[in-house]
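Hi support team,

I've been running sequence recovery on a batch of backbones for a student project. Most finish fine, but this one hangs at about 90% for roughly twenty minutes before it completes. I'm not sure whether the input is malformed or the queue is just slow. I've pasted the structure tokens below so you can try to reproduce it. Let me know if you need the job ID as well.

Thanks,
M.K.
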């Protein structure tokens, strides 16, 4: 019986994973409002009822997709920055890792950018908490920079993340001048040249 229960749990986890992957693709490609539970069930090859066995509602499914997306981007950023000491190089590596996660056709990551918490009031609190937890990484990175006191670190963080996230609307895969690393390098260099504390340059 223990072996049967273990196998069933394994099958349930596998089904849950397929539901999450299908939901991520649909939310990323079509948006939350335009995606139905029936769309996802059809994609996975299960009944609508089977979806509700794993997720109580569509907004709970979105929250789970969002959480997985935040986890994946966060791990990419943490891995890219853990061995770098220079603050500006760390920010550049973080920006490149963030952008690569978005541009590698990763549905989970794209959901985090495409679905705005306020668009889903029933899940807004959870989505905002997840997003804030992720953005805390960039808050910490920017807090270590030598920037002129006239600049607001919060606005700098929003400016950089906004530029990175908007790349999804114009990025063309295969262009030698627009690799994730090259884009991140230019964004961060522009930021550095504009806000570095001139008193430190002397």
């Amino acid at each position: 019986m223990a072996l049967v229960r273990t196998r069933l749990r394994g099958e349930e986890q596998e089904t849950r994973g397929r539901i999450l992957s299908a939901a991520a693709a649909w939310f990323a490609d079509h948006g939350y409002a335009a995606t139905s539970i029936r769309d996802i069930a059809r994609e996975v090859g299960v009944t609508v009822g089977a979806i509700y066995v794993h997720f109580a509602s569509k907004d709970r499914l979105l929250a789970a997709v969002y959480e997985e997306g935040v986890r994946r981007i966060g791990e990419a950023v943490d891995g890219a920055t853990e061995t770098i000491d220079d603050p500006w190089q760390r920010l550049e590596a973080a920006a490149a890792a963030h952008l690569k996660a978005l541009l590698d056709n990763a549905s989970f990551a794209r959901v985090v950018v495409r679905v705005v918490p306020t668009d889903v009031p029933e899940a807004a609190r959870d989505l905002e908490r997840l997003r804030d937890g992720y953005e805390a990484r960039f808050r910490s990175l920017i807090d270590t920079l030598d920037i002129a006191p006239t600049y607001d670190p919060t606005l700098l963080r929003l400016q950089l993340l906004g530029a990175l996230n908007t790349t999804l609307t114009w990025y063309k895969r295969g262009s030698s001048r627009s690799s994730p690393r090259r884009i991140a390098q230019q964004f961060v260099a522009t930021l550095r040249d504009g806000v570095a504390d001139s008193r430190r340059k002397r």
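--
Follow-up from support: It reproduced on our side and the slowdown came from queue contention, not your input. The chain is about 75% helix and 0% strand. No action needed from you.
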